[in-house]
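User: Can you fold this complex?
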Amino acid sequence: MDSINNNADNKYLSAYENKIKNGGIISVLFSGVGGQGILLATSIMAHACLYDGYDVKVTEVHGMAQRGGSVVGSVRFGKQVFSPIISRADIIVSLEKLESLRYIDKLENNGIIIINDYEVLPISVFGGDYTYPHEISEKIKNFTSSYFIVKAFETAQQIGSTKTMNVILIGALSNFLPVKAKSWIRSIEKVVPKKILDLNLKAFEIGKNFKN
Amino acid sequence: MILEKEKEILTGNEAIARGAYEAGVKVATAYPGTPSTEILENISKYKSIYSQWSVNEKVAMEVAAGASIVGARALVAMKHVGLNVAADPFMTLAYTGVNGGLVVITADDPGMHSSQNEQDNRYYSKMAKIPMLEPSDSQECKDFLKASYEISEKFDIPVLLRTTTRISHSRSVVGFKEVIAGNENTPYIKNSAKYVMIPAYAQIRHKDLLARWEKLKDYSSSSPLNRIVLPGRGIDKSDKIIKNFNSIGIIASGACYQFAKEAFPDVSILKLGMPSPLPEALIRNFLKDKNVAIIVEELAPFIQEQVQSLDLNIEIIGKEFFPEDGEFNTMIVKALYRKFENIGYFENGYKKVVENIDNGRISSLIGMYKEKAVIDNFIVENKNINEIKKIISEIPPRPPVLCAGCSHRAVFNTLKKLKLMVMGDIGCYALAVLPPLNTLDTTLCMGAGIGQALGVEKSDPGYKGKVVSVIGDSTFFHSGITSLIDNVFNKGTGLILILDNRITAMTGLQTNPGIGRTLMGDSTTKVMPENIAAAVGVKNVRVVNPYNIKALEKAIKEELARDELSVIVCRQECVLINKNKNNVKYHINQETCKKCGLCIKFGCPAIENKDENYAINKFMCNSCGVCAEICPCKSITQKENG
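Assistant: Here's the predicted assembly.
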C-alpha cells in the first residue's frame, strides 16, 4: 500500500459517499487506553462532520473506565443519525496497538482499521496468563485486508509532543471520509486549545500525508 | 430550523446545563455521581446560577426545595442510587408541591458502566406521583428540562427528568436560544397547610396530589412531548407489506426510541417524552387498529405492565423478547425485527402468522433474545471461525486499575498482608477487589462498610481484631458520619480507616467539605474527618501518611489490639490532582533484582514485567516510592529526572 491520501484511487471514499447518499450512516469507532485523548479525537471528527453539514452523534463511557482501562468512543454521521451506539464500525481507529483487536467483532466486513504502532502493556500480561500481540498484523489480517499501521509515536516525538498522537491518527483517518479538508481544519481550530493549535495542525498534516 | 452558527455538539449533561441557563434556574445542587456529575460542573460555568456540591443527595434536594419555596427555579441532579438517599424529601415534596419550578434529575445507569446496581428509577415517578420526562438526545435534554419547569409550575409539583448513561454521555447537535424565562422569583406567601406536612395537612395534600395526578394524566395524552413518529416510506415496498408494517405499533422512550427508530424504520413509533403518568388515551388511540404492540424499554417492564393493564385485546411484546438487564442497542432491537422477518410477518401479515400457532401468540414463535446469536452472526462468512475465536479469546484484558502511585494501593496491600476482613465502600478503592490485591469483602452502598463492620463484630466476638472498614473522604461526609456515631453509641470496638485523598476522585476530582473550596471556587471552612471522629467521642484517632507503609502497618496493628473504637485517617493527596509534579522517578536495578515478583504483586501499572525483566515505566511512575519500601532486596531506588 502506497500513500493513502491519493484520492484518485481511494475506493473507500467513494463507497462512503454513496452510502451516505442512500441515507446510510458512517460509523467510526475509536479505541485506546485511558488518557490517550479519545475524547479530543471524537470531538474533532464530530465537529468536522457538523461543519460539513451532516447530522452527527458521539458516544463514550466515562467514570470507572478511565482508570487506566480500555476506552472506547465512537462517532456516527450521515443525513440523520438515530442511535449514538455503533452496531457495526465502518472504520476502527486504535490509539494503541492491542486495542485494535478489542472491538474487532464490531468491524464491518472489509472495514478499515487504522492502528497506532504504540504499545501500552496491560497488567494482565505481567502474570503470564496473556501475551501481548506485538505482531498485530498477523492477527488483524484474519479480519480485514484494509489495515494501516501508523507510527504516530515516533512522529509525535519528532514534532515535540507525544500527546499529538491522536491528531496524527485523525489526519490519517481524514483520507477515508467524505469530509472536506477545510472542515477538519476548522474543527481542530475550534476544539484544540489555542496554545497548542499550531502543533496539532502540523500533526494533522503529517497524519494526512502518512505513507503505509 | 436552527442556523449553523447557533449549533453546538453537546453531551446530554452539557445540554441540561444549558437548559438550566435558558430556563432561568437560580439554584442548582448535586452530589457527584456517574453519569450525572457533569451537569453541575457545567452549570457552575453560568454565573447567573448559584450552584453547589452538597454532602449528599438528600441535602442537595432539601437545598433545592428551599429555593423553590421562596419562588426560585431550582434543580437537583444525582445518579440513580442517589435518589434512594434523597427519597425521603422526594416523596413528600410531591405532597407540598412547589413555588418556583423544581426539577429532580435522575441519571440511571443501565448496563452498570459505573454503578453498583441498575435499578429502574422510573418507578419513583409512579410511587411518588411525580411526573417524569425522558429525553432521547442532547437537544431534548435541553428542551425537556425547560418543559419540566413549565409543568412543575403549572401543576404545582416537582418534575423528575430521567436520563440514562447513554443520554448523559452521548454528544449530539443542539441549537441554542437566549434566556427566555424571567429571572424574578415568584413571591413567597407563608402557607403552612401546603408546606408543613403534619398528618392533618398531609391528608389534605395527599388528596390534592391525587387530583393533580389525574390532571397530569390528561396533560400527558395531549402534550406534544408524547407524539407518534410515522415511518419514512420505502418506495420499493408493496401496499400489502406496508399494511403489515402498519399493523404493528412500537412504544419507546429515551435512548430506546433511537434504537427502535433505526431497527424498525418502517413501523410507527409512539415516542414517549413524558412516559409518566402514562398517556393512556393517546396509547389507546395509537394502538386501536394495531394487531401487535412492541414495547422497547431497558430494565423493568415499566411501560409494558401499564399498557397491559389497559386491556387492549392485542398482543403486546416486550419482556417476552427483550432482556430485563443491561443496556440496549440497535442490534438487540434489530434481533426482534429479524424474528418478525423469519416468521414471515411482514410478508404474510398478522392473521396468517397466528393461524398456525396453538396459543395464537406470536411471542411463542420468537422466543427470548439471545445475545450469543448476534455475536455469532458476525463470526461467519468464509472465514476461519476457529482461528478468529482463538484470536478474540487471547486478547489480554485491560480492566481499570488504581493509578500508578495511588495511596489506596499502599493501604490495601497492607490490609492484605495482615489478612484482614475488609468492609468496603463506594469509590476508586473498590478496584482493590481485583487481582492482584483481592482485598475487599463487601461493597454495598455509600457509608455501608462502617455499619457492616459493627454488625460483624456484634454477631461474633471472634471477629475482634480481624475486621476493618474503609471509606473515602467524600463518602465519609456523604453517609459515613452517621454510621460512625452509631459505632460510638453502641460501643463498637472496631477500626475504621478513612482514605482521605483530599478530593472526590472517582467521579473526576470534585471538591468536598474537606477541601476548603466550593464548586463555584470560593474558599470555605475545611471539615477534617479526624476532628469529626474526635468530636463524636472516638478516643483513638490517628492521621497517617499511607505512603509510609511501615508506620501504617504499625498503626493498624496497634489500633486493632485495642478494646475500643479507633479511626485512622490515611491522608495522601490523589495523584490525579497534580500529575507528574515530582521528577524524581524510581527504577529497578537489574543487577541486584532477585526477581521475587513482590513488586509485580503490588499491582502498580507503572511496574512492568517484560519477559521476567521487571522495570518501572518512567512515563507512568508518580513517584510514591512505596515499591521501594516493598522490595526486599532494596533494588528499587530513586533516579533523578527519569
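Residues 407-571 of chain B form a domain with the Rossmann fold fold (CATH 3.40.50.970). The CA atoms of residues 111 and 447 of chain B lie 23 Å apart.
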